[in-house]
Task: inverse folding
């Protein structure tokens, strides 16, 4: 069931979002919002790439649209992971900038590799573009992981998302169960890459 | 008998999907990548508006959350 929130605040002591009525949002609720957002944005990116593939959208126009979408999506996932705009530190902004630069480098190389002639453009293009959206899961989960390490949590585990296929490495990570938080493999650092949909859970729930 | 003049067919017909000029992707330099990756206050406002525009009002409220 979708949430309909009033204004929320970030409780730095509990490391949770609180609704106007004082209820703490659960990790599952916040991840649900992120999943919905990533799904929407990935679909937009895929649709633009389909238009570019068939020549309805020029490569530079598509590249500019993608850059804006990537910036919005990754800014949103990272900022939400850190507790909202009011909680971002200069270090957090620096990390977000580095993440964005990584994405933009890949986007540049992707755009430069698009064939000039439309007949040579294959359906691999929309599929690849969509991954810039699904990568939002990794930017969110890894930012929550960083926040929880800084907050002093010590135990975490990786769990495969239900209803989706997982790669062998993600299955192995799930099998490891609870481990030292510093040993957790980051989302996206597996063969499934930007398609990884795993969740990192914490012994003490923050969100 | 009258003949209607038809111009000689020289170039392939342009279709809606073939651009007139070659499309050139942006080959962003390191400096341009750095500039693109900077997040300004205006960018944050844009992101907040973008979240609402694409139908994710709740995510926008988390994004804009103030710290207690």
Result:
């Amino acid at each position: 069931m979708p949430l309909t929130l009033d204004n929320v605040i970030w409780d730095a002591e509990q490391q949770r979002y609180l609704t106007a009525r004082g209820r703490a949002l659960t990790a599952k609720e916040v991840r649900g919002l992120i999943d919905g957002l990533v799904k929407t944005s990935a679909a937009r990116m895929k649709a633009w790439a389909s238009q570019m593939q068939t020549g309805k959208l020029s490569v530079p126009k598509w590249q500019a649209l993608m850059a804006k979408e990537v910036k919005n999506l990754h800014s949103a996932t990272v900022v939400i992971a850190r507790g909202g705009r009011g909680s971002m530190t200069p270090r957090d902004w620096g990390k977000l900038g580095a993440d964005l630069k990584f994405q933009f480098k890949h986007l540049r190389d992707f755009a430069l590799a698009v064939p000039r002639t439309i007949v040579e453009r294959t359906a691999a293009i929309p599929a690849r573009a969509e991954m810039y959206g699904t990568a939002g899961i990794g930017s969110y989960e890894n930012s929550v992981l960083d926040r929880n390490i800084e907050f002093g949590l010590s135990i975490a585990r990786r769990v495969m998302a239900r209803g989706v296929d997982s790669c062998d490495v993600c299955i192995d990570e799930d099998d490891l169960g609870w481990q030292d938080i510093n040993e957790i493999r980051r989302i996206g650092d597996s063969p499934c890459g930007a398609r990884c949909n795993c969740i990192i859970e914490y012994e003490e729930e923050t969100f | 008998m009258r003949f209607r003049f038809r111009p000689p067919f020289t170039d392939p017909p342009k279709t809606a999907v073939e651009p007139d000029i070659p499309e050139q992707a942006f080959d962003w330099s390191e400096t341009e990548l750095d500039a693109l990756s900077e997040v300004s206050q205006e960018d944050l406002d844009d992101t907040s508006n973008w979240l609402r525009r694409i139908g994710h009002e709740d995510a926008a409220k988390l994004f804009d959350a103030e710290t207690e």
Summary: The radius of gyration of chain A is 18 Å. The mean pLDDT of chain A is 94.
